[in-house]
Amino acid sequence: MTRTLILTRHAKSSWDxxxxxxxxxxxxxxxxxxxxxxxxxxxxxxxxxxxxxxxAAVRTRETWDRMKLEAGEERFTxxxxxxxxxxxxxxLNAAQGRTxxxxxxxxxxxxxxxxxxxxxxxxxRFEDYPTGATLVLDFDTDDWKRVAxxxxxxxxxxxxxxxxxx
Length: 166
Known about the structure:
By secondary structure, the chain is α/β, with parallel strands linked by helices.
């Protein structure tokens, strides 16, 4: 049995309020449109998470909300706010369900994605993992506890910009 991970970086955030704490920054107009586009794309592909593990920052929560997907369970935690790839792997290893969506921040998210893939996708922006970037990985395992580095098989990698170009 396989497990599927959807790994999304928060959409573009607003810098309109000088002095606003980083944790409290919302999405800007482009970010809102991007989050909605990613949600439509995932829904069209039938990718609906059993579990969402999301940073508690405003911009990640708003990204998830604007994706307009249903999930079996949602967990918002500061344990995914600006964390390392190793910390993200520990969170994933404790997950339940067949499909998990993780929503977080760079640089940890980009490092996590690069460390999970057996072979990176042929995409010019994979390494820097820009805002809204979404990676879909399959793991040949029946338990998230068994997921380790370089086990993920890339199914999809997309940027919101590619979805909004139409």
